[in-house]
From TrEMBL:
<keyword id="KW-0411">Iron-sulfur</keyword>
<feature type="domain" description="Molybdopterin oxidoreductase">
    <location>
        <begin position="442"/>
        <end position="487"/>
    </location>
</feature>
<dbReference type="GO" id="GO:0030313">
    <property type="term" value="C:cell envelope"/>
</dbReference>
<dbReference type="Pfam" id="PF01568">
    <property type="entry name" value="Molydop_binding"/>
</dbReference>
<protein>
    <submittedName>
        <fullName>Formate dehydrogenase</fullName>
    </submittedName>
</protein>
<keyword id="KW-0408">Iron</keyword>
<dbReference type="GO" id="GO:0009061">
    <property type="term" value="P:anaerobic respiration"/>
</dbReference>
<dbReference type="InterPro" id="IPR009010">
    <property type="entry name" value="Asp_de-COase-like_dom_sf"/>
</dbReference>
<feature type="region of interest" description="Disordered">
    <location>
        <begin position="143"/>
        <end position="167"/>
    </location>
</feature>
<dbReference type="Pfam" id="PF00384">
    <property type="entry name" value="Molybdopterin"/>
</dbReference>
<feature type="domain" description="Molybdopterin dinucleotide-binding">
    <location>
        <begin position="731"/>
        <end position="849"/>
    </location>
</feature>
<dbReference type="InterPro" id="IPR006657">
    <property type="entry name" value="MoPterin_dinucl-bd_dom"/>
</dbReference>
<feature type="domain" description="Molybdopterin oxidoreductase">
    <location>
        <begin position="11"/>
        <end position="388"/>
    </location>
</feature>
<feature type="compositionally biased region" description="Polar residues">
    <location>
        <begin position="691"/>
        <end position="701"/>
    </location>
</feature>
<feature type="region of interest" description="Disordered">
    <location>
        <begin position="682"/>
        <end position="701"/>
    </location>
</feature>
<dbReference type="InterPro" id="IPR006656">
    <property type="entry name" value="Mopterin_OxRdtase"/>
</dbReference>
<dbReference type="GO" id="GO:0016491">
    <property type="term" value="F:oxidoreductase activity"/>
</dbReference>
Amino acid sequence: MGTSFGRGGATQTLEDMANADCIVIQGSNMAECHPVGYQWVAEAKARGAKVIHVDPRFTRTSAVASKHVPIRAGSDIVLLGALINYVLSKDLWFKDYVLAYTNAATVVGEDFRDTEDLDGLFSGYDPETGQYDLSSWAYEDKSAGKGGDGGSEHGSDTSSRAAGDQYGSGGPAMDGEFVQDLTLEHPRTVFQILKRHYSRYTPEMVHEACGIPVEDFDYVARAITENSGRERTTCFAYAVGWTHHTVGAQYIRTAAILQLLLGNVGRPGGGIMALRGHASIQGSTDIPTLFNLLPGYLPMPKAEMGSLDEYLKEVFSPDGKGFWANADAYTVSLLKAWWGDAATEDSEWAYQYMPRINGPHGTYQTVMRMLDDEVEGYFVFGQNPAIGSAHGKLQRLGMSHLKWLVVRDFNLIETATWWKDGPEIATGELKTEDIGTEVFFLPGATHVEKAGSFTQTQRLLQWRHQAVRPPGDCQSELKFFFELGKRIRAKLADSTDERDRPLQDLTWDYPLDEHDEPDPEAVLAEINGCHLTGPEAGTPLSSYTQMRADGSTAGGCWIYTGVYADGVNHAADRRPGQEQGPVASEWGWSWPANRRILYNRASADLEGKPWSERKKYVWWDEEQKRWTGDDVPDFPVDLAPGTVPDRDARGVAALAGDDPFIMQSDGKGWLYVPKGMVDGPLPTHYEPQESPVSNPLYGQQQNPTRVVFPREDNLSAPSAGTRGSDVYPYVFTTYRLTEHHTAGGMSRWLPYLSELQPEMFCEVSPELAAERGLEPYGWATIISPRSAIEAKVLVTDRVKPLKVGGHTVHQIGLPYHWGVGQDAVVSGDAVNDLVGVTLDPNVQIQESKVGSCTIVPGRRPQGAELLTLVSDYQSRAGLTPETGNQKLTGSDPVSGEGTKEEN
């Protein structure tokens, strides 16, 4: 994605958080949503660490933190940007680390223009397409004299693909020799551009934009800087409070910049912890359920990539440095794992069997296509989109256009029953007898009824042993897909149609146990990979460095290679921590190569010595002439500090002794992204799609490259300063509770958990309650441009009004676990019905953590009267499909004329 880290997982382990001297939890309610992992934060605090919780609400995490800092939802980049400015302006950055290990000294081409020059836009913006030509963001190439290959893309088509993932886990290739100024005085060094870009992100701007008092900002700034450097480290942790925004990828980028400046990446107690929603969300992106990725973060081929060579040229550069230059070996090994003997050099290793994408095929694009009658069937596994995805009404209406729908779950979730008891049945928008969708419900096994690996938050593979057999016809996903594959292949066995060859030639011969279940360890072994030729033929690979592009190795996911080394299931390793070293490397297995901290070469200085004895982790052993330490070194083990590679060296051989970021094409952590992010080389504050606040920094209100869906059934509220914005004056934000799990499919069917949290509720401040006449424990109706829901009122000081831009902003907290149906123990209106569909342009994720609404006392109307209520507010606000969806709202970078939206 062109991030500073380049790989799709948290940089540290959860246990390593105990080594932090300061922990900032922002965009997450970790103690409540990740209570088991929070033990390590509690341990750090017991050792003296400061724990700061930045969140719109005072939560259970806030209650056990050193300090809670309330923030306006959607304004995090202002706070993080101001922290960057604080570090730079007060000269608190880790100079030796930054100069050696980041791209701070690299000079950017003279054509680049920043948001400070263009009122919130970067150079290269095309008002007609709403997209950037990235070429002006390039580094200055020594040979060219101007911008080099650093940004050679033109017109990244964010309307047709999730462009940020096109480079896979290695980030974009950077060919060329770029101008550098190690004094950092050149005005176009990354360092100087960074200083100018964040110069207006001040404590006063944080107060104006985020509602955070200056003294609270000072506390945070002092805490992270006093706990960073040679002797101390600070850790950041986030979850969907950062990702579910139209600038979600840039939230994480901002934290990455801050952590690089402070020298907190690759070191114990540092990094950025990406907290995942449940046991194997990390695994579902490693071996992906994502439309644009292959296992191990290899990009999915695009329709125009007609040959393997064309694909590989887009994926990596063999002339680049680092391990991503071996992506051809990872790709060919994957193809051999999938197609075995059919994958030959003459057949391009079966590349022509690969599906290819011609645009985005994520969940929201799919729903839009359902509504347009372009999708006939839909499989739903481990999801409950009828209430768990943004704009639940759109999800349910979309499914009513299908010919068939398959739902696998262990409860009759709302996605399986919307056709008979969903909200649209009550309003009359749908009638059961008119719905042509044939729904198949197939019972699934629970997590205790099946064996297999799961990969959790910290990239750790752990083996789940089967506790009991699944009852009746319940099946594991593994058995279901294996049986489905066998049946499809049997039907196609005699086919002579070329399009059936990929299915006919698949390797599909997993051994069965006594219950006719496929052996999950055999699948893990296939994912790990093995040698196919030579004296070691048939033996498991022990490292991804053994993979070859000549067809002599197979492996289903290169980053998992080693989990089955020597034929041993290392995901099942369970050696007690007290019998091990400090990283507990024999408890589970962490990708890649069982490393617990990524890029840990950065834990040592240029000479290979630990930055301090207190924070030593890996180091260069001069006697052994190799890297050693507490963890597996994330670096070529025999590459000595000070090594300067030959000018014509390529791949791993091109890494210098001071290139710790071994997956980046220049070996450095990126403070500035010359290509790889489609909405800017530096994170910039834009307001959410719906906001009662005008952007205090720029005339450009929202992310100008966000993906919008202007439709009558997906209306947006007007932004501040435009006609009708007073109709939806409040901010709502969604969250989860410990007692329930995601959309409730695993908890609202259990009486014990349902008793603990029996009703949908909304959290409001005493001030908002008084302003709107809301009674404690009474009913309230929350109305957005899409729908209206009812909830019990919880009046609490945990959600405080914030002074933003000279006026008070009220925020409403809404848990998202409930749905309307007749099968669960408890039901209630679904908060996701309020949420619209607008996406981050890099990763196509929805903005569901912030929206605009109003709130009134009393229960919502029933039946068709509910539609009348929603329509009345839409009319009062003057909503049309164009409202809020204008890409350019500041000054036109071409004409210079204002283009502020008027409704």
